Amino acid sequence: MSVQPLRTKLPYRLNQSRSFVDAKVKWVRDPYLDFVVEREKDLAQALSFKNHILSDPCKSLPLSLVSLLKPKLHLPIPSSRFFHNHPSFFSVFHPSPSLPPRVRLTHRALSLHHQESAAFASLHDDAVRRLSRLLMLAGGGRLPLRLIQRLRWDLGLPHDFAASLLSDFPDYFNVCEVRNPSDGKSELAMEIVSWRKDLAVSELERRMRSSPSDSKWIAFPMRLPRGFDLGKKVKDWVERWQLLPYISPYENGFHLSPGSDQAEKWTVAVIHELLWLTVSKKTERENLLLLGEWLGFGSRMFKKALVHHPGIFYVSNKIRTQTVVLREAYRKDFLLEKHPLMAMRYRYIHLLNQMPRLNNKPNIAI
User: Fold this and answer.
1) 42 — alpha (psi -120 to 50), left (phi > 0) or beta?
2) CA distance 39 to 348
3) Which of 142, 160, 265, 339 is least crowded, fewest Cβ atoms below 10 Å from its Cβ?
4) CB of 174 closer than 8 Å to CB of 141
5) Structural domains of the chain ordered from first start
6) For the segment 116-132, what is each residue's pLDDT rounded down to a tens digit?
7) Which H helix or E strand runs over 277?
8) Order of strands across the sheet with 102-105?
9) In whole angstroms, what is the distance from residue 291 CA to residue 305 CA?
């Protein structure tokens, strides 16, 4: 089944002028949002190890085999030390004196895994909506599987999303081939079967519709950290920029001049919606830039939008990468709308950071 044309071109032409002031917008550290990123530093790797361990029939893996996963998981320390640092989560044991050591999960980690599996099962419809909206943000309604895989963790998709969602929701998704614009080679992609008008509503539009106000004007919420002060010229520009018409990220704004303020507001709307689709309201900057390239923005437009609007986006330099956080989603380090999967992840973090009491028996997993 072919996908019907997506993102109807806007019938009106907006002001194409560019008025951003020639002033540098400084980066100011936000310790609360840095902590938001830093507290998850070992989480993704731990859960990836968990999934590999549980995929083995013995529910354990030899340390020699686990060490081969280290480069794939971008682990900065040896895997044996990683397990040693988290004894409440992983248990290293010797099956017998003559056999090499293996690693398995503790009882408490295994219990959390079962709870997480139940949460994923109850959130299938939510995952379908998130993935559908992501695909509808793409001009052709399709994205390479490699890009979706990069965003899988942030979108809260199951690790086997391609197999499970395709088989369970054939009316929503299909696998196709696309051509990589960088090298011209074909690659597998996922596409949305048909446009879902009820889902093509951005978070900011949804808020406007639910608001009792009659105003049609949509501005981006801005939160600046203490000690941050925009220069007067920049502040005046931001105020004028906020008054520009809001163009939905699900509409086609590529007819706008790439250097115009209006084009930048549409670009910000796309990034805002992308971040809102994630369960933690953040993702690595590299993910956004790669997605921007595929969507047709190029990395330059996304980079400029992130730099020009520190009141909307925060770029953290913690845990050996750059992470873009949607400021409005947090009050200090508290996530205002906690997705059920985030509640599970916080429980995993709590367990990872726990040390067994000395007078307790060692954790032994089944």
Assistant:
1) alpha
2) 11
3) 160
4) no
5) 38-116+346-352 (1.10.10)
6) 999 998 998 999 999 99
7) helix 261-277
8) 60-62, 102-105, 90-93
9) 14
